Amino acid sequence: MDRRSPSASAAGPLPRRSWWGWGTEDRALPDGECADLGALVPGAAGTPLPVPGIADLDMPLSRVTAPPSLGHLVSDAPEDRAGHTYGKAYRDVVRALYGDLRPAPDLVARPRTEREVTDVLDWASGADVAVVPYGAGSSVVGGVEYRAGLHRGVVSMDLTGLDRVLEVDRVSRAARIQAGVLGPALEDQLRPHGLTLRHFPQSFEFSTLGGWLATRAGGHYATLHTHIDDLVESMRVVTPAGVNESLRVPGSGAGPSPDRLFLGSEGTLGVITEAWMRLQDRPGHKASATVFFDGFDTALRAVRAISQSGLHPANCRLLDPGEAALAQVAVGGRSALVLGVESAGRPVDGRLAELVGLARDHGGAPAPAGREDSDTAAGTWRSAFLRMPYLRDALARMSVISETFETACTWDRLPLLVDTVRRELAATVRKTTGSEAMVNCRLTHVYPDGAAPYFTVVAAARRGSEVAMWDDVKAAATQVLGDLGATVTHHHAVGRDHRPGYDRQRPEPFALALRAAKQALDPAGILNPGVLLDPAPRPGATG
Ligand SMILES: Cc1cc2nc3c(=O)[nH]c(=O)nc-3n(C[C@H](O)[C@H](O)[C@H](O)COP(=O)(O)OP(=O)(O)OC[C@H]3O[C@@H](n4cnc5c(N)ncnc54)[C@H](O)[C@@H]3O)c2cc1C
């Protein structure tokens, strides 16, 4: 298994990817720092959970072997299987720390060509073996964890071998890109052309283009092109029923969009192997500013005015006082609005001044504006943002629940939604864990008609019951969101964990159409069973 960091320099030894937690092993917090962090949370355990060795994991033996023709693609090595069992949600990290690898795939397949993707699907369809497409495994919704228990075996199909930019059309500013490329390697290949995709989810370093497309990921743009959907020109998808390649055009009114069927299909309808993506010139002008507010409701009104102003800031992240304090952007109970503007060809200072002016008109107090990456609140926020997943893993080792969830709703319901989530979750955490919770909120993406609030829950759990306790809290969150007409997810996708909320919000005629599409494209029912839809009985299956 190649567990090197994709962004490591060729000069030195490459850090290894963590099989149990976020990112690379060298960036995980050492025991002492985990303990120091845990000490900040009342009721946390006194010592960190140890990270188990691969030999000590509870992982069943592999049940299937691939035919000799696929032998060079597959591995049943325990380290490979362990690293492909779960995504990177809090509940995934905790189960890995307890050595519970029972859902491990039997094999990990690493195709390097589209032909090899087809070969694996052909064999699996005939052999009653489930195939879970796997980008970089950063799913936080159980998207890469097989749970159906119906198939003769399970293969995790790791697509990171398909990692090249194949063609650049400078005239149309687009590129044909293989789906398994990780964020940094994608940008590295575009840089010599002076181009960029500019899709930067928090997971950018350890997630793939195919994963972004399959989950309809949300990037760093807080307005306008919020989801990867907006950056796609056409896609190529290998399904058990054949290859689906959409026409490469800037827009089309020819019936329902084929790409819309596969965007967000989460590995259930086919394997995305390539896409033509719309690119941008690299931004030569960037500026950012931070504005502070005494009340979160006042800040919400300011952000609404900005989102409806037509000024389209690239960044427009509103942090409530808890988030702002954690990110060391603001203290003293103030909310912070981080604004950013960028452009390839035009100065942006005027637009930033207009945005800051709007925020001031709505009760904000601006901090002095600075250039991006300088020592400003915006730069501090960005560093904290990227370090956060490693801190989350450290807290998991201290038996502290530290997890996030996100949603979206229209502006008219937003204040009620935020208040209700905070209240209900604090009550549920108290009841479930006996501890007080910190429930923080930030807005990650904003629209003229609404916004996407993103919640972080931190609370001490009882050692040994962390997953069950978080599951109770998450069920309460899903209930509140559904009751208030908010979506079960704005950009984290459905996977298996969001099925209850997704089933509730999805119209039944659409569910019928999706089931029919699944049956037509994947008649043997092998592709990521249990995601989006219940697994259907497979032809020829017994029992
Ligand atoms: C710390 C952290 C931060 C995150 N930040 C963000 C964020 O800012 N924005 C955001 O949107 N999400 C975020 N996520 C969630 C996650 O990174 C996204 O869902 C991402 O798009 C998944 O990409 P991946 O390559 O890791 O896919 P995986 O996790 O490997 O797979 C995700 C789903 O896509 C399917 N899939 C993957 N590749 C393919 C393919 N080529 N063809 C067909 N199906 C495929 C899988 O079967 C699975 O259902 C974050 C997660 C973590 C842990």
UniProtKB/TrEMBL annotation:
Residues 1-22 are annotated as: Disordered. Substrate binds at residue 392. This is Alkyldihydroxyacetonephosphate synthase. GO terms for biological process: lipid biosynthetic process. FAD binds at residues 133-139, 266-272. InterPro entries: Alkyl-DHAP_Synthase, FAD-bd_oxidored_4_C, FAD-bd_PCMH, FAD-bd_PCMH-like_sf, FAD-bd_PCMH_sub1, FAD-bd_PCMH_sub2, FAD-linked_Oxase-like_C, Oxid_FAD_bind_N. It holds the Pfam family FAD_binding_4. Its cofactor is FAD. The record marks 317 as: Important for enzyme activity. It comes from the Bacteria. Keywords: FAD, Flavoprotein, Oxidoreductase.
